[in-house]
Amino acid sequence: MDEAAGSPAVSRRIAPQRASLRPWLLLMPLLVFLAAFFLVPLAQVAMMSVTEPEFGFGHYASIATDGFYLRVLADTFATALLVATCCLVLGFPLAYAMAAASPNMAAAMMIVVTMSFWTSFLVRTYAWMVLLGRSGPIAALLDWIGLPHGELLFTRFSSTIAMTHILLPYMVVSLYAVLRKIEPSLLRSAASLGASPTSVLRHVVLPLAAPGVVNGLTLVFVLCLGFYVTPILLGSPREQMVAGVIGQQIEEFLNFGEASALAVVLLASTLIVLGLYHRRFGLDKLWG
Amino acid sequence: MSAPYLELRGLGKSYDGRTRALDNVSLTAAKGEFITFLGPSGSGKTTTLMLVAGFESASEGDILIEGRSIGRVPPHKRGIGVVFQNYALFPHRAAAENVAFPLLMRKMPKAQAMAKAAEMLGLVGLERFGGRYPREMSGGQQQRVALARALVFDPALLLLDEPLGALDKNLREQMQIEIKAVQRRLGVTTIFVTHDQSEAMAMSDRIVVFDGGRIQQVGAPLDIYRYPSSSFVARFVGDSNILAARLTDPAGGQAEIAGIGTVRVPALPAARAGDAIELLLRPECLKPGSGLDNAARLTVDVIVHFGDSALVTGHAGGTPLRARLEGLAAQGISAGDTLPLSWATSSSHVIGRDAAG
Amino acid sequence: MRGLLLSLGAVVLAFIAAPLLIVVPMSFSSAASLEFPPPGWTTAYYGAFFGDARWTQPTINSILIALAVAVLTMAMVTPATFALVRHRFAGKSAVNLLLMLPLAVPHIVIAIGYYAYLSDLRLLQTFPGVILAHTALSVPMAFLVLSASLKGFDRSLERAAMSLGASPAATFRHVTLPVLWPGFAAAALFAFIQSFDETVVALFVSGRDSMTLPRKMFDSIRTTADPVIAVVSTLLFFTVAALVILPMLWRSFSRSRS
C-alpha cells in the first residue's frame, strides 16, 4: 500500500448533478429587467383601463356598445385580413420563383427582399407618398392611359398597399423557407406519374407549402393588427385602424382609460391569434 | 506493490438519480499501455471516457493517476489529451495555432510554442501544413492535427473518442497504424474508444468490453477473442458459432450437442454432468474433412466468396453453423451440398467457464 | 403555369424594389413638394440635412441610443441565451415565452404603458427612458439570433479547449467568443437596428432633447412633407444596402479563398 491508501476516495459520493441554480443566475438580470421594464408597464395599461379616471369597466362597456369603436375594430380586422391575403397572393409567385431560380439568382432576389425588410418603414411609407401623390408617377400613368381616378393618397387604398409592401418580406421569407426545401426530384416524379403542372402545384407544392402559408399569414395579420404609423401617415382620417385611435385618445384627448381599454382589446386579439398558432405549431417557429 | 499508473475505482454515473448509465467500473492500467474501450453505443464506454477527461462528474467512485485522485480536478487542470470524434479543431485557428494552443495556455512563450507545434506537426507528417485552416484540410489531415494537439503538451493520458469513425476504410487502417506508431514512440498511456471490434483487435494491448454500463471483460485482444467470458462478448468480438450443449462427462471433457452428437470439449472438473453449457466455435476453426478431434456434417444453405476466404452458412442436423474456409478449399461448393467438417477440441471454448488451455 | 408564376414573381420583385429606389432620385429633386419625376436636380437638400441641427441632432441621438441599446441588450441576453440553450430546468418554456413576449405585443400598446410608467419614474422624454424601452423591445430578436447561433455551436470545441488546459474563462475568450462572433455581431446589429428604426414608442416617450430620427421623420412627413425626408431616406437606404450586401460579399470572398 502507498499514498493512495491515504485517499478517502473509494466510493465517495461526488455531487451528482449540480443543482439547477446556475441557469437562474444567468437569467436573473434579463428577467428582472423584463419584469421591471416590460411586464410592469404592460400591467399598467391593463390597470389604467379599469382605473382611469375611476375604477370600473365602463370603457369596455362603451367599446362593446359604441358604433364607432366597433366599426374601427371591424375595419382593423378586415384590413389585416386583406393585407395578409394580398401578401400571400403577391408573395407566393416570388417565393416560388426564388425557389426555382439558380442559387446566385435566388441570392440576388433575396438581397432585394432583405433590403426592403431592413429599410425603415418610415422610408417605405414616404416612398408610397411619392408614388401615389397627386403629381406622382402612378397618377401620371393613370392620366396617360385615360383612366379616371380620384385622390390616391390618404385613402384606404394607399394605406393598404403600403402596408402590403411593408409586410411582404415577412411572407416571402416564410414561404421561401418551405418552398426551397421541396426537392425538384419530387416534382419530376409527380410529373412522371402523370400529374399535369397545375395538379403538381395543387397536390404536391401547395400541401408542402402549407406550414409556410400559415406562418406568413399569422405573422402579417398580427403585425398589421397593431400597425400605427403607416395608416396615420397614408390612410384616410375617416377610416382609422385601432392603433391610430388609441394614439389619438392619448394625444388629443389625454383619455388614458379609453386608450388603455382599446389597447387591451388589441393586445387580447393579438395574443389570441398567436395563442392559436402556438397551440398548433409552437410559437418558436413563427419567427423562424 | 506500487500503485498502478491509472486506476478507475468503482465509477458510477446516474443522470436522473435512478437508472445507472455506468455501474461499478473498476480498472487499472500500466504506464504506456494502449487500452481500448469496446462496446455498442450506450454501453458506457464514452461515459467512462467523459468521466476520465473530467467533462462530466462521477456519481460514485474515483479516478487516480499515479495514486493521486483527480476525481475533483477540473478538466483544464487534468493534463489529459483528448481527440474527439469530430476532431474539434478550432475553426478560427490554423493547424499550427491549434497545436500550439495547449502550450500557450500553459504560458509558454509564443515563439517557443510555435516551434514545438511545428515539431509535433512534423511527427504526424504535416510539417508543411501548419498554416492551413481546418476547413482547408482533409479528414485524415484534421485527424492528425487533432492528435498532434492532444500530444504536444506531454499529457498524462491520451483519450481517443472514436476518432476514426468518419474516415473511409483505407484511410482508417492507415490511421490505425499511424496512431499506434506515434503512441509507441511517445510511450503515452492511451484509452481508445470504439465500437469497431476489428479496430480494437488491431490496436490494443488490452481491450475492455463494455455493455449495459458495466465492464464485461478485460483482457488481451487474443484472449478476449479466444476465451470470451460471456456470449455477449463472444458475439460482439468476431464472428461466432455458439452451440447449446449438455455436459455428459465434465472431467473427461465430453458433451452432447443436438444434431451433431457427442463432442469433446475442454475439461471442466468443477462442473457436473447434465449441466447446460454454451460452446464457442469460431467459424475459421471449422476445417474441411474429418481429420480433427470432432466432426459434423454441414448442409450448405449459402456460400459467399471473399477471394481469400469463403463464408459457408448452413446447418448440421438442425443446428445452424457457420464456417470460414480458405478461398481455394471452398471452390466448387454450392448450396445444397453436404460438407464434412471437423475441429480441434483446443480451438473450442466453453463460455463463462475458466478452462484456459 | 410555371412560366406564369415566374413572371409574376418578377413583377412582385419590381413591386418590392421600386419604392426603395424611388427615394434616391427624389433626394436630388429640386421640387419642394412630392413631384415625380423631378422637374430639376439639386444637392441643396443634402446641405440642408447636414447643416441643420434639427436633423443632425436626432440622428446623433438615435445612433447613441441604439448603441446603448445594443450594449445593454447583449449584456443581458448573452447569459440568458446560454442558460436557455445549455441548461435544462423547470420553467424553461415559460421563460422562453416571456423573452418572446415583446415581439408579440403591438408597439402602440406598450407605448401607452411606457408613457405612463416612465413618467411615474420621471424618465419620460429622457435618454435613459428611451434606451430602457428600446432594450426591452430588442430582446426577442437578439435572443432568437443568438440562440440560433449557439445551438449550432459544437460543444466539443469547448471540451477540447478545456482538455488542452484552458480555464473556463480562457475557453470562452479564446474559443467560444471567436467562433460565435458572427452570431454575437448579428444579434447586436439586430438590437441596434430595432432601436434605430423604432418609431411608435419613441413618439410617445422621447422628448425634445432625446428626439430620435424616426420621430423627427414622422413629424416631418406628417406636417410639412419636407424634401429633406428624401435625403434621410436615401442615406438610410444606402446604409442598409451596405449592411446587407457587404456581409454577403465577405462570405462569398472567404468561400472562394478556401
Automatic annotation (TrEMBL), chain B:
A GO molecular-function descriptor: ATP binding
ABC transporter domain span: 6-237
UniProt-recorded name of the protein: ABC transporter ATP-binding protein
PROSITE patterns the UniProt entry points to: ABC_TRANSPORTER_1, ABC_TRANSPORTER_2
This protein's record includes keyword Transport: yes
Organism, scientific name: Teichococcus aerophilus
InterPro entries per record: AAA+_ATPase, ABC_SmlMolc_Importer, ABC_transporter-like_ATP-bd, ABC_transporter-like_CS, Mo/tungstate-bd_C_term_dom, P-loop_NTPase, Transp-assoc_OB_typ2
Keyword hit for Transmembrane helix: no
Keywords on record: ATP-binding, Nucleotide-binding, Transport
Automatic annotation (TrEMBL), chain C:
Source superkingdom: Bacteria
Localization per record: Cell inner membrane; Cell membrane
One Pfam family cited in the UniProt record for this chain: BPD_transp_1
Membrane-crossing residue ranges in chain numbering: 63-85, 97-117, 129-150, 171-193, 228-250
Membrane disposition: Multi-pass membrane protein
InterPro entries, per the entry: MetI-like, MetI-like_sf
Keywords, ordered alphabetically: Cell inner membrane, Cell membrane, Membrane, Transmembrane, Transmembrane helix, Transport
Keyword Membrane among UniProt keywords: yes
Family assignment from sequence similarity: Belongs to the binding-protein-dependent transport system permease family.
PANTHER family named among the record's database cross-references: INNER MEMBRANE ABC TRANSPORTER PERMEASE PROTEIN YDCV
The name this protein goes by in its record: ABC transporter permease
